[in-house]
Amino acid sequence: MSLGAILTAIVTPFDADLNVDEDAFTALQRHLCEHGSDGVVAAGTTGEASTLSTEEHLRVIELAVQTRPPGTAVVAGTGSNDTRHAVEMTERATELGVDGTLSVTPYYNKPNRRGIVAHFRAVAQATDKPIVLYNIPSRTAVDMPNDLLAELAQIPNVDYVKQANNANLAPVDGLGLYAGNDDILARTLDLDGEGGICVASHVVGDEMRRMIDEPERRAEIDASLRPVFEALAVTTNPIPVKAALNLIGHRVGGLRLPLVEADESELATIRAALTRVPV
Questions:
Q1: What is residue 141's DSSP assignment?
Q2: 55 Cβ contact list (under 8 Å, min separation 6)
Q3: pLDDT by residue (tens digit) across 102-142?
Q4: DSSP states along 69-114
Q5: pLDDT digits (tens, 9 = 90+) for 50-102
Q6: Domains in the chain and their CATH numbers?
Q7: Average pLDDT in the chain
Q8: In which region does residue 155 sit, left (phi positive, over 0), alpha (psi from -120 to 50) or beta (all else)?
Q9: Which residue, 9, 13, 24, 69, is CA-closest to 205?
């Protein structure tokens, strides 16, 4: 099955006490799916999964499934550097009714190649839904080269890769290719990839959808969105995108430590970029 072309890695809104704001989450999910997104990735990096409790993490996934607009996809972030925990979260998310799961390379403990293969074999046995591998060495300290990804593609249910190492961007036999960074969405589409798991689609989703619907103008649209892509990378994700959403009137609140809110210089960069595009 196709999970969609534009999947937004949705932020987790917090209230003033930094509890999950369920009403704000539902409103944002609906807005995204009305403005270019085929669905959302819930409780991923952008959703601050690393500072959600297990109960909160599963509730965000459940909420996304229960309140999704008809015909839209929900992919759940279920990765962990503890294989047992990744298996448990993948099982639970599958039971909650997700369309697929996003599973990051185990981080910090830096498994070798055999360990990575064993990890994903165990995770794949926990679900009958598509698994999107997530290669993001800037956060995990471990890169999955394309020959390893091709090996992992032989595991049943391992169907896609979210490629967030721009240097590795290339088709991989057996895997649908998703852009893991907004600035390579156009290149991914030119390679006949599936699309992107995006952050900037929170604020310019309609324009990013045009890169799919108007391929003859893809390069032009991509160039026009570069200031937004750069502004939303001015500091650690999801600090900038939460700032941008709050600036344009979406109630998403602050961030949990150790992430802190954007400073004045970062806010100025984000404001300047937002004035240059339709939001």
A1: S
A2: none
A3: 999 999 999 999 999 999 999 999 999 999 999 999 999 99
A4: PTT-EEEEE---SSHHHHHHHHHHHHHHT-SEEEEEPP-SS---HH
A5: 999 999 999 999 999 999 999 999 999 999 999 999 999 999 999 999 999 99
A6: 6-218 (3.20.20.70)
A7: 97
A8: beta
A9: 9
> Could you tell me which residues come within 8 angstroms of residue 46 by beta carbon, excluding any fewer than 6 positions away?
9, 10, 11, 199, 237, 238, 241
Phi, psi of 137 (to 5 degrees): -65, -20
129 as an active site residue: the answer is: no
Which listed residue (129, 134, 178, 242) is catalytic? 134
CB atoms within 10 A of CB 104: 24
Structure tokens at 72: 């839209």
**How far apart (Å, rounded) are the C-alpha atoms in residues 189 and 132?**
17
162 annotated active-site: yes
Among the options 129, 160, 162, 178, which is catalytic? 162
pLDDT at 1 over 70: no
